[in-house]
Amino acid sequence: MRSWSIPAGRVFGVEFRIHLTFLFLLAFVWMTESATHGQADAGRGLALVGIIFGAVLLHELAHALIARRSGVPVKSIILLPIGGITMLDDSRALTDNLGAHWKRDIRIAIAGPITNILLAVVSGSIIAALLPSIPLWEWPFLGSNHLFRSIVWANLYIAGFNLLPAYPMDGGRVLRALFSRNMDTVRATRRAILIGQTFAVVFILVGLRWNIWLTMVGFFLFLAAQLEERSVVFQSVLETVHMDDIMLTDFATLSPADTLEDALDKAVHSLQDDFPVIRGGDMVGVVSRQNILQALRSEGNGYVQSVMSRMFEVANRRESLASAFRKLTARNLSIIPVVEEERLVGIVTLQNLMHSISLLAESRKLRRQALNS
Predict the structure, then answer these.
(1) Which residues have C-beta within 8 Å of that of residue 331, sequence separation ≥ 6?
(2) What's the rounded Cα separation, in Å, for the pair 96 and 73?
(3) Model's pTM, two decimal places?
(4) For 302, left (φ over 0), alpha (ψ -120 to 50), or beta?
(5) What does the pLDDT look like over 112-146, one tens digit per residue?
């Protein structure tokens, strides 16, 4: 999901990213306007996309503010042409009991549509008072030739589509919150996603027959549902798999008395990027291949002890991947040693964690398909 988006800055501590489908929308509007009105007026299509972007941005800011006030940390928001995907803080997203907070989740979900409706009412009132010659109720409601009217209707359309009970639209999030009262988070989310994908297919088919814009909305809705489904699979894997299922048991260690050149030589013959540093059977630090190289380049040969980090977390082999992921991300770590009775028995690195998660998710998907066939 992040690989198909570009950073757009931070607001209230929340990272905002623009999904590349906005560029697809821009190209679509540009070609449509060029074909209909010629190149001279095609620039108005850019203004129309800007209006839609502003409405989506304010919609998602409302979500972020209410979430923050409700004690739910939001890490990032990815903006799509019909709304956004809100990424909660990993530690909260993995452990939060949705069923216990369904009223809170509904408040957060409806904050966006309410904001768009208020923006439509306020902008419509201003236009009616200052520019009474502009007909607000004349078709087409949304178009590059009627930008002032489009401000009102872009907000109304975004509010209306987001109130549909189609996950991950806000109405679908309300539906998931209601489902979560009687079932676990993963089942509630999957059921809401299925409904959302059904809406998306209907929009695409109906749009192909009558309105290409409806097809566009269906496409974006289906894409957003797919992104959310991957996130749910990722979270379910983290919650149910233990450290000893994925930890590396064949790994290299370093001593604080090793020279950096010796350490680099060992790193060259290992697939590891991070190494536990052991002294007399006790773990005293961790060091990365990158830190070794940087120290050699800047200071010349020295000892591992001078560049190793003494800040690290340990885990036992029966801890869940959710616990490991929280430890890695909370302190920006890249390796977690796994211990049993104070003895180092394995390591989990961020690199092998992400690789193992993708393989585990795929194996579970294949098993489900085998059982259903």
Answers:
(1) 311, 313
(2) 11
(3) 0.64
(4) beta
(5) 999 999 999 999 999 999 998 888 888 878 877 78
